[in-house]
Recover the amino acids of this structure.
C-alpha cells in the first residue's frame, strides 16, 4: 500500500534566515573561509626544527655489554654435583655490563648516560640514543664509552675536531670491528 | 529571590555551539548545515581518501629509492590530475581530522557520551587514534624532508616507551639504515591502520539505524568542489628528497595533522605522551562520570502489538527486534525492546498504528508506548483541555521538549503538549485535536538535522506530509496545521508560527475543521 502524499504539507515552516542571493553569498563566504583555513594551516606557518646556525649530534649505541665477571672452569667435584646434561666445564655469568657513555662538546659535558641491559636476567643488549642540537661550526668532541665492568676493562675514548655545517647530522656510534667509537 | 546557578561549561558551550549552528543555518539552511552533518562529512572525507588513495597507491613505487620519484611523477599526469589526486587526498585527511574533532565536541556538548550512546562514544575513541596514526604515516611514504622529520620524530617519541630493545630511531641514522622493508612497515601503517579504522567505524555505527554515510547531495558536491579547487589552486608539493645526514631547517608542516611533532620539540616526548594518554583516558572516562538517570524505555503491549514492524523501521537506535508473538498464531510477530539500546525517545509510539486516539476504548492502550508519557495520558489531557477551552479559536501546540520552549510564551488560547520528541506524536492526534475543538495545530519539531534523537524531526515531517506511515489523513485541512522546525533558542520562530496559524484560522471560521469525520477504526 502506498502512502498518500500531502503536497500541501511539504515539510512545513523552516527557519530560513537569509534567502536567495544572500544565502548563496553566505555559503560562498563560509566555503571560502573553510578552504582558506585548510589551505593555510596545511602548509603554514613554516616550521624550523633547528636554527639555521645549528647542527645535530646523534649519539646512538646499541650493544650487548661484556659479561659482568670472568668465566670459570669448574672442578671435577663441582661437575659431579651437576646433572649429566648440564656438565659444561666452563661457566660464565649470564648478566651483561651496562653501557656507559660520556660526551663532551667544546669542553662541556653534554651527555652522561648509563644504560642497563634489557631482560629479566639483564642479559640483553643496552641502548643509548640521544639527539643533541649544537652550534654549527668547528667543534671539539670527546667521547668516552665503556661496556665492561670487569677490573682492568678498556674505556674507549675518542677525541675529534669536526666542522659542522648548519643542519648537518653527526652520528656517534660504536663498532668494535671499526675500532670502537665512530663518527660519521 | 530566585537563585541563579552558574551555567556549566557544557551548557555555556552548548549555547555557543547552537548560536554557531543558527549562524550556519542562515547561509546553508538547517537541512544542509554542515555542522549538523559532521559524522556524514567525516564519512565523505573517508570515501575521498579511499578513492584517491587507491589511485595513488597504483601509481606509487613502494621502495625507498623510487617513492619520491613516483610522487613527483604525478606532476606529469595530464590535465593536472596528479595535483588533483594528491591535493584531494591530503585535504580530505585535513577535513576528516577537523570534522572528527568537531563531531566529538558537538556530541559532548549535547551530553551524548552518556546512557545508551556511551557505546557510540567509546567505540569512537579508538577511531581518533587510528585516524592520527594513519594520517601521520601517510607523510612518511613521500620520503622527502618532511617524511624524514616526521618518521624520525615519531620513532624518537615511540622510543620513550620501553617496548623495543633497539631504538626505532636507529632505523634513520644513516641512509643505509632505511630499507625497503622499513617502507613496507610505512605502508602497513598508512594502509593497514585505515582498515582498522573502517572496522572500528562499523562498530561505531552498528547500533544506529538509517545511518547517513554521505551528507546531503548539495553538501557533498559543495565539499568535493571546494577540495578540488583547493587542490588545484594550492597544490600539495613535496619538500626536497630525504637526506638523513641533514636536518631540514624549514618545513611546511600540515599543522592539522602533524602538530604533535612541534609540540614534542617545544616540550618533551614525556609531556606529549602524558597529554595523549591523558586525553584518551579522559575521553574513555567521560561516559562513566555521574550522569542523569536513564530515560524510561519503551514498553510493548503484546495484546495491542500487531507485529507491523513500523516501530522497528523507525527506531533510530535499532533498539527493536521482532520475535514470534506469544499468541502462537503462525506468522504473527511481536516487537521486542532491548532496554540497553532504547534511548526513550518515543518515536516508536508515534510509529505504532495502534496509537491512534480515535480508538473507542476507555484506556488507550497501544502496541508500544512510553510509560513516562503514554498516548492515553496525552489523549486524556487533550480531551480535558479541549472540553474546558473557552477561547473561540483554541490552538494546540505539540512540541519537543528538546526544541523551542513554549511555556513562558503561552497565550490563553494556546494549549501546549511537550513530547519526548515530536516523533512520539502519532499524526492522528493532529486530526483528533481538530475534531475535539482545536482551531489549529502547531507541530514544533527541532531544526532539520538537529533532532536530539536523530530522526524524530524527519519522521514527523514525512508522516505529516503523507510520505511515511502512519500518515496524516488527506482530509485534514492543511491550513489548520502548522509544522515548524524550531530548535532550542528558536522561541521567536515558534511564536511567529503560532501567530501565523492564529491569524489563518480566524479567517477560516466558517469552514469545518475536519472535512470528513468518517474515522472508523475501532477495537
Amino acid at each position: 500500500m502506498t502512502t498518500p502524499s500531502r503536497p500541501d504539507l511539504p515539510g512545513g515552516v523552516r527557519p530560513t534566515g537569509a534567502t536567495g542571493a544572500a544565502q548563496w553569498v553566505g555559503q560562498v563566504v563560509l566555503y571560502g573561509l573553510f578552504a582558506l583555513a585548510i589551505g593555510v594551516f596545511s602548509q603554514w606557518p613554516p616550521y624550523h626544527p633547528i636554527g639555521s646556525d645549528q647542527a645535530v649530534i646523534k649519539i646512538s649505541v646499541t650493544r650487548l655489554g661484556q659479561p659482568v665477571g670472568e668465566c670459570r672452569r669448574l672442578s671435577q667435584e663441582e661437575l659431579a654435583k651437576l646433572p649429566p646434561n648440564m656438565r659444561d666445564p666452563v661457566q660464565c655469568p649470564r648478566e651483561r655490563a651496562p653501557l656507559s657513555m660520556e660526551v663532551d662538546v667544546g669542553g662541556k659535558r653534554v651527555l652522561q648516560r648509563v644504560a642497563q641491559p634489557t631482560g629479566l636476567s639483564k642479559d640483553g643488549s643496552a641502548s643509548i640514543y640521544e639527539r643533541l642540537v649544537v652550534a654549527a661550526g668547528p667543534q671539539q668532541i670527546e667521547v668516552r664509552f665503556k661496556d665492561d665492568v670487569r677490573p682492568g676493562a678498556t674505556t674507549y675514548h675518542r677525541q675529534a675536531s669536526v666542522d659542522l655545517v648548519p643542519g648537518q647530522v653527526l652520528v656517534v656510534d660504536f663498532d668494535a670491528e671499526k675500532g670502537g667509537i665512530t663518527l660519521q | 529571590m530566585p537563585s541563579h546557578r552558574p551555567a556549566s561549561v557544557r551548557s555555556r558551550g552548548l549555547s555557543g555551539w547552537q548560536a554557531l549552528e543558527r549562524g550556519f543555518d542562515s547561509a546553508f539552511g538547517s537541512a544542509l548545515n554542515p555542522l549538523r552533518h559532521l559524522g556524514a562529512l567525516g564519512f565523505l572525507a573517508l570515501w575521498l581518501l579511499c578513492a584517491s588513495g587507491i589511485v595513488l597507491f597504483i601509481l606509487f613505487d613502494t621502495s625507498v629509492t623510487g617513492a619520491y620519484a613516483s610522487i613527483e611523477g604525478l606532476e606529469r599526469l595530464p590535465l593536472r590530475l596528479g595535483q588533483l589526486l594528491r591535493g584531494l587526498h591530503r585535504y580530505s585527511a585535513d577535513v576528516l581530522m577537523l570534522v572528527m574533532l568537531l563531531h566529538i565536541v558537538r556530541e559532548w556538548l549535547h551530553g551524548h557520551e552518556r546512557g545508551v550512546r556511551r557505546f557510540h562514544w567509546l567505540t569512537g575513541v579508538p577511531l581518533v587514534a587510528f585516524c592520527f596514526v594513519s594520517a601521520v604515516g601517510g607523510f612518511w611514504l613521500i620520503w622527502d624532508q618532511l617524511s624524514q622529520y616526521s618518521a624520525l620524530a615519531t620513532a624518537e617519541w615511540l622510543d620513550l616507551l620501553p617496548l623495543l630493545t633497539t631504538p626505532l630511531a636507529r632505523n634513520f641514522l644513516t641512509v643505509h639504515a632505511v630499507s625497503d622493508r622499513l617502507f613496507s612497515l610505512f605502508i602497513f601503517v598508512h594502509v593497514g591502520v585505515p582498515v582498522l579504522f573502517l572496522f572500528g567505524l562499523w562498530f561505531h555505527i552498528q547500533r544506529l539505524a538509517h545511518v547517513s554515510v554521505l551528507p546531503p547531495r548539495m553538501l557533498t558536491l559543495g565539499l568535493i568542489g571546494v577540495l578540488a579547487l583547493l587542490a588545484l589552486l594550492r597544490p600539495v608539493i613535496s619538500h626536497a628528497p630525504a637526506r638523513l645526514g641533514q636536518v631540514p631547517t624549514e618545513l611546511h608542516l600540515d599543522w592539522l595533522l602533524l602538530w604533535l611533532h612541534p609540540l614534542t620539540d617545544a616540550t618533551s616526548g614525556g609531556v606529549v605522551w602524558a597529554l595523549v594518554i591523558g586525553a584518551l583516558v579522559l575521553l574513555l572516562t567521560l561516559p562513566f562520570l555521574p550522569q542523569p538517570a536513564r530515560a524510561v524505555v519503551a514498553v510493548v503491549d503484546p495484546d495491542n502489538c500487531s507485529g507491523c514492524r513500523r516501530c522497528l523501521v523507525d527506531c533510530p537506535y535499532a533498539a527493536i527486534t521482532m520475535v514470534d508473538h506469544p499468541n502462537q498464531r503462525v506468522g504473527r510477530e511481536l516487537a521486542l525492546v532491548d532496554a540497553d539500546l532504547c534511548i526513550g525517545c518515543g518515536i516508536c509510539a508515534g510509529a505504532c498504528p495502534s496509537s491512534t486516539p480515535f480508538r473507542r476504548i476507555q484506556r488507550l492502550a497501544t502496541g508500544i508506548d512510553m510509560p513516562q508519557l503514554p498516548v492515553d495520558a496525552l489523549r486524556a489531557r487533550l480531551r480535558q483541555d479541549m472540553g474546558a477551552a473557552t477561547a473561540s479559536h483554541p490552538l494546540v501546540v505539540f512540541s519537543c521538549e528538546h526544541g523551542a520552549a513554549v511555556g513562558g510564551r503561552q497565550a490563553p488560547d494556546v494549549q501546549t503538549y511537550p513530547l519526548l520528541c515530536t516523533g512520539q506524536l502519532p499524526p492522528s492526534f493532529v486530526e483528533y485535536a481538530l475534531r475535539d475543538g482545536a482551531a489549529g495545530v502547531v507541530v514544533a519539531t527541532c531544526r532539520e538535522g538537529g533532532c536530539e534523537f536523530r530522526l524524530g524531526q524527519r519522521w514527523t515531517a514525512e508522516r505529516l506530509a503523507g510520505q511515511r506511515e502512519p500518515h496524516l489523513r488527506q482530509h485534514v485541512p492543511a491550513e489548520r496545521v502548522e509544522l515548524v522546525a524550531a530548535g532550542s533558542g528558536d522561541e521567536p520562530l515558534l511564536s511567529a508560527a503560532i501567530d501565523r496559524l492564529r491569524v489563518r484560522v480566524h479567517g477560516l471560521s466558517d469552514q469545518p475543521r475536519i472535512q470528513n469525520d468518517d474515522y472508523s477504526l475501532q477495537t
